[in-house]
Amino acid sequence: MSPTSMSEHDATSPKFLRGKYAICGVGETTYRRGSEESTRSLATWAITNAMEDSGLVPADIDGMLSYSGNDSIFAPWVAGDLGIRLNFYMDVHGGGSSTEALIGIAIGVIEAGMCKTVAIYRAMNGYSAVRIGGTGTRSAAPIVGDQIHHRAYGWQSAGQMFAPTFLRHMYEYGTTPEQVAAVKVAHSKHASNNPKAYYKKRYTVDDVVHSRIICKPLHLLDCCVETDNATCIIVTSLERARDCKHPPAVIQSVVGRCCKPRIDMHYQHGPISTVAGHYAKEILWPNAGVGPNDIDITGSYDAFTFTTMLQLEDYGFCKKGEGGDYVSSGTIELGGKRPNNTSGGHLCEGYTHGMNMVIENTRQLRDDVDDSCPIGPDGKRQHTHDHSEGGCRQVKDAELAANLGWAMPGTGSAMVMAKDLR
After folding, report:
1. In angstroms, what CA-CA distances link 104 with 111, 137, 203?
2. For 166-198, what is each residue's pLDDT tens digit?
3. Quick one: which of 98, 108, 175, 211 has the fewest CB in 10 Å?
4. Catalytic residues
C-alpha cells in the first residue's frame, strides 16, 4: 500500500504528519565485545557514518537526541566533537522503547520550527562496561526508586523481570519453548547473511531448548547478545530527505512510550500476558492509515525470543494466543510472508536498544541492505533474493515496514515506515 498524500489530511488531525517526515541517513559502528573505546568515540563514529550515508555535512544538522543509560554520553559533547552547532538537543533516560519515541520527538521539534534536521544516536559499551542486570564495571549500585520492588525479590535482570509474562502466556495458551525458539532460528538465518552480525551461526530449535537455563523458562539462546556499539538515525522533512544521497524511508506513524495502566508492577493490572502493544496499536494503525496485513517487514524487539512473539501478537499480526504458531510457522523468516528482524536483530546482530532494527528496515525500504550480494556497475547491490546461508537478505518489493519497540511488558513504542514511491 502506498503512502497517503498530505492533501488528504486536515491539518488539525494527528494524521496530518503522515508522510511528512523521513529517515534520510543511518549509520553504526561495528558490533563487538571489548571496544576499548569510550562511548563518546563510538557516538562520533556512528554519527559520522550516518552523515556519510545521507550525504549531509555537520552544518546540515542542527538537532540531536540521545537516550542515556549506563555508560552513555551527552549530545552537546558529541556535537562539539563533530563540529555541529545545535539549535535543539535533549538526552533522554531510557531503554528499549526510546528509539521510536525519539523519532516522534524529532518530528515534533522540527514541526515546531525548533530545528531542521535531527541526529538520534545511542552509544553503549553493553558488554565491556555496564551490562544489563547491573553486572559489569559498575555492578555495586545502590537500590533506589522502583528497584525496591524488583531487586529485593530477585528481579534484577531483564530476563527475571519479563519471564513471568511469558510463563503466564504458556499457562493460558499452551505456548511452548520450542515455538518461541523458532524466533532465534529465524533471526540466526538472517544474521548468517549479514557480514556485520556478531553471531552468524544458524541455530536449530534443539540448539535453543538444550542450551542452559538462565531464568526459567529462558535458555541461554533465548537471550540477546551483549555488544559494544553505537548507532545513529537522521530525521528530517521528506522534502529535504529527497535531496539526500539515498531514497528516504517515509515515516507514516509513530507511537512513543505507550504503557499499560501500571508499568512498575504491570502484573497488578492484568492480563499479565498482555503487553503495551495492545494499547499502542490503537494509535499506530489509524495514524498510519494501514493495518498489520499491509506490512511487508517487521522489526519486533528481541531482547528475548518471547518478546518478539508477544509484540507481534498484541499488535495484531495474529490473534491473541496464536503468537507461538505465528513465529514457528515460517512467516517471520526471509522468504516467508512477513520477515522479522532481517539483520538478525538483538539475538544475533548486536544489542542496541532497538536502533539496529530501524536501521535495517530503513535499508530494506531503500533496497539497500548490506549483504553479500555483488555490487553492480552502478554502485548498487544486485540482490539475488536467494536467502540461503551467506546469501541475500533483501526482501523483494518491500513497501511497508513496522518497528515494534519494547522497554518492558508494560511499555512500548512503535513506528510504520514506507518506501518513497514518488
Report:
1. 11, 33, 36
2. 999 999 999 999 999 999 999 999 999 999 999
3. 108
4. 301, 351
Q: Structural domains in the chain? A: 14-130+226-419 (3.40.47.10)
Residue 204, burial from CB neighbour count under 10 angstroms (0-12, 13-18, 19+): middle
**Dist CA 253 CA 18 (whole Å):** 6
Q: Based on the number of CB atoms within 10 Å of its own CB, is 70 exposed (0-12), middle (13-18) or buried (19 or more)?
A: middle
Are 50 and 265 in contact by the 8 Å Cβ rule? The answer is no
Q: In the 8-state DSSP scheme, what is residue 253?
A: E
Whether residue 311 contacts residue 406, with contact meaning beta carbons closer than 8 Å, is answered with yes
Quote the distance between the C-alpha of residue 181 and its chain's center: 20
Helices in 236-395 by DSSP H: which ranges? 238-241, 277-288, 305-314, 323-328, 345-348, 355-365
The answer to whether the beta carbons of residues 240 and 117 sit under 8 Å apart is yes
- The CA distances from residue 356 to 30, 86, 103, 363, in Å, are 11, 25, 14, 11
Are 280 and 258 in contact, with CB atoms under 8 Å apart? yes
Distance CA 183, CA 321 (A): 16
Note whether 110 and 118 are within 8 A (CB): yes
- Residue 21: partners with Cβ closer than 8 Å, 6 or more residues away: 106, 107, 110, 111, 235, 236, 237, 238, 241, 250, 251
| HSE of 182, CA atoms in CB hemisphere, 13 A | 20
Q: Across the strands, what pairs with 405?
A: 413
Given the C-alpha cell 508499568, which residue does it identify? 263
Q: Look up residue 313 and give its amino acid.
A: E
Residues 42-87: tens digit of each pLDDT: 999 999 999 999 999 999 999 999 988 767 899 999 999 999 999 9
pLDDT tens digits along 304-349: 999 999 999 999 999 999 999 999 999 999 999 999 999 999 999 9
Instruction: State how far the Cα of 82 lies from the Cα of 235, in Å rounded to an integer.
Output: 18
Using omega within 30 degrees of 0 as the cis cutoff, is the peptide bond preceding 217 cis? yes
- Least Cα distance to 178 among 152, 154, 209 occurs for 209
403 near 361, Cβ under 8 Å? yes
